[in-house]
Specification:
Layout: H1 2-9, H2 25-55, H3 69-94, H4 98-128, H5 136-168, H6 178-203
Helix pairs in contact: 2-5, 2-6, 3-4, 3-6, 4-5, 5-6
Length: 204
Amino acid sequence: MEAASLHHGSHHGPPPANRSSRVEPQLLGMLLFIISEIMVFGAFFTAYFFIRVVAGSEWFPVDDFELPKLVAGVNTAILVSSSLTIHWALEGAKHGNRAHMKAGLVLTLLLGSTFLFVQVNEYINLTQEGLTPSVLAQGSVFYGLTGLHGAHVFIGLLLLTFATVRAFRGHFTPEEHRGVEVPGIYWHFVDVMWILVYLSVYIL
């Protein structure tokens, strides 16, 4: 009886949380967030294709406006390249190569920032030519879909900035590199979404 009471008294505080999933909380949280974002993009794509069907052959060029396909193509190559650099950074973190990890993160930041700069510059040029979000349904859905993606790129750049700062402060090891892996997963998602946006809006 006394031994039982001593054993009972040796535990202090609440019992440890029960983890029913083998996926780590940070990774699981990011995956659930991405699933919710896929549904948001799905709603915008639904509106886009509805307008495409209604507009028929009058998508673009319309009212003398034409989308800059070449610029968008180069920008797509820039963003796809950033997926390779973030993968390089993660491999560096996994193998304890801090130089590769830092270089990969910095290059990814530069490529992502370049993509966003080109996208904003494209908006400026189009609005100066008269293509604003209020010009027809085409203008609304174009800015809505590409702007939604641009917002996600901005969020991704913030996550990558935090990861880069931590990397230069000596964080991350081969055993603990979630701080690089989780933003990397989000960045790959952003890249895949842009490929879908580019093919749907600029190519089809």
